[in-house]
Amino acid sequence: MQLTKSKKISTLLATATCTLLNTGVQAQETKSVNDWQFDTAILYYGETDRVSLLEGVVSATKDFGDQHILNTKLVIDTLTGASATGAVSQPYAQTFSRPSGDGQYTTSPNELPLDDTFQDTRVQLSANWTQPIYQDTRINIGGNISSEYDYLSVGTSVSAERDFYNKNTTALFGLSYQFDSIDPVGGRPIALSSMVVNNGQFGAGEAGEDAFETAFNQTRITDTDDKSTVDALFGLTQVINRRMIVQLNYSYSNSSGYLNDPYKLLSVVNSNGETQSIVHENRPDSRVKHSIYAQTKYAFDDAVADVSYRFATDDWEIKSHTIDSKLRYNLTETDYIQPHIRYYQQSEADFYRPYLNDADVLPAVASADYRLGEMTAITVGLKYAHQMNNGHEWGVRAEYYQQDPKNAGFENIGVLASQELYPSVKAFILQFSYNF
């Protein structure tokens, strides 16, 4: 899963957003210089019949005065459940080898193939230091390390901010570098190699097990692989008047190296849509992304509206649009609610295929990962927060998320016409936060 691995530019974006749009400023104003500010949260994310995530976050910020600020963050999350493999469902049962090669699992007829042994634990630690270097100019230096069972990520970032026009305008430029080491369970699959399944052809007993293991190992590379990502961010934040503020960012990202998901598969079918073999995906070894992000906040007498739009494109031909809106409404001086609506739409990657045809030559790159296909998604939710007499604040956020993959013009041949190849993904999100 890449659910927790798509944060290449998060540090830079957080810096830009916090420049003048920090929603935690009011809480921090109750703290004196040299006090620690703690933000904690526990989040549950659960997909129907699929992946579940439980995440805990502790963020600590200390202002040493004169804009010398230290922020540290610890994130621990666990993922369990069933992950879609990319193989298509069939009107008959299908058997798959587990990624480790140790055992097999069988899916029922007309059932989307899911590997129900998916599980992982991630621990991430990050830190960021902010300080002025001369009048109205600050630098931010950060670093992070994240570890999973099969994944290690190390990164660093640096950015500079400068205020203009009585601090009504802030410009930001940032760079970050991320290095990831990948060591998949069972080894890295050879790109587009066929999955080896023990259907009795290797014989019985220990000799049969040894023969299967030999055949399985021939489709694997045991050495670790890596990828690197360089991100750049250009941002501008502008105070329009005492009620309105806007922000505009441009970001660039360049990734190279091992970009495959080692656990994703493709079905190779005949002219009747029946699966003849299962192969491991292969993606390009580089990816360049561009995105433009615009945000505005407007303060009413008893509410704050927050609306943003992001357009992103890359050389995989994925184009996406994201509209995000929140309205914080003050019920009293100590209580507020915040409805949230987010809409997302993307086109498919140029190498996305829901399946491959055995009459065609295998393409150089191909993936059936639905996250690379055409889709729309919507999130709706509500947050309630209360500030206590001691200045501490707690909040509860509940959201519903639905992702709807689309058919980007592929023909559902033969038996595939009766199968659900693009099922929706539905999830519930619940978060409890406490700031002190």
From TrEMBL:
Keywords from the UniProt entry: Signal
Keyword check for Signal: yes
Annotated InterPro entries: DUF3570
Signal peptide: 1-27
Protein name: DUF3570 domain-containing protein
Organism: Brumicola pallidula DSM 14239 = ACAM 615
Lineage of the species this protein comes from: Bacteria, Pseudomonadati, Pseudomonadota, Gammaproteobacteria, Alteromonadales
